Pyridoxal phosphate-dependent aminotransferase family protein
Amino acid sequence: MRSFENFIEQKLAERQSAGIYRTLKPENLLIDFCSNDYLGFARSSALKEKITTEVNQYPDSMNGSAGSRLLAGNLTYTETLEKVIAAWHNSETGLLFNSGYDANVGLFSSLPQRGDTIILDELIHASVIDGARLSHANRYTFKHNDLQSLEDKLKQAKGNCYVGIESVYSMDGDTPPIKEIIEITERYNAALIVDEAHAVGLYNKGIVVEQGLQDKVFAQIVTFGKALGCHGAIVLGSNKLREYLINFARSFIYTTAASFHQLASVKIAYEFLQGADSEIESLQNNIAAFKQGVQHNPAYPLLVSDSPIQCLVLNSNEKAREVAAALQAAGMDIRPIFSPTVPQGSERIRICLHSYNTIEDIALLTNTINTLLHG
Ligand SMILES: Cc1ncc(COP(=O)(O)O)c(C=O)c1O
């Protein structure tokens, strides 16, 4: 066997023996406690119909964008959409990216320079970490949501300093003390960047806007693949930042722009969100019912979260796998989250609640968990 084939085989064997081998699974008929479709937009036939109506209003629109934004792939529709979304989020401007991954990689790789400093919450999404790795800046992490740890790292910062946090953490579902983080970052003259992927739609325009903090945040990332049920992302910030990203963010420059259908989906999903009060209420009721129904066991703590992301920490890959398998056998799509995706010892099951889960679904979930972990 050639050495590179040998390498692949060895790495896969290591994964397999560690019990963390990843495989793709097709869709299933289990109760959805797994997807990010918090408000049911991705599966909404009413939204699909509205998107079709929108697309049909542009009979000359193309199937594909036929180029990057800087070449043939830019439309008046794209730029209008950016303005509309930015205005809705009370932001000066926005720049669309093909995904949240691209947005974070583009922003964090292009802005911080050699000699600058990036400080990230230790639980920040992989896309931010990958962007930061591509920059030549000094990188630090601070303990999750820990203001003292953040301040300790800010004291060591050199050059321009960028601090990255999420407003709802994707693996824990919790929210940071944003006002306090702003106070500290302002004191150290650092630029705060907030990833709102899991907040927009659930906390209306996102936590930053809901708390009236948009003037104190340097940039926000909003992704469209969670509550909005489609695909893509926008970086919100100043005109100068937008111009900078158009010139330097390689994940923006060197990729084919989104198709017209994708842009139309995002536009209509935003409009749909403005009439989604009943979906948001159902989701809140389901979160409350889950938290009430699940029995607390200090050996397997439920992480503090008011969001649809609810995690039971099971302390090992084996236990996480065992509990997830039992929940799947009982008819629910719940996945284990292994280390190294989460720190060792905090392996868990991650439950995503939705507006369309019924009260019976939630009862089945909590009863099964209670039997598995307390019975
Ligand atoms: C916090 C956070 N940021 C960014 C992303 C990436 O977004 P996308 O799925 O649009 O690439 C995700 C998706 O998992 C996320 O959870």
Residues 47-273 form a domain with the Aspartate Aminotransferase; domain 2 fold (CATH 3.40.640.10). Residues 99-101, 104, 125, 127, 166, 170, 195, 197-198, 223, 225, 233 surround pyridoxal-5'-phosphate (CB under 6 Å). The chain has two domains: 26-41+276-374, 47-273.
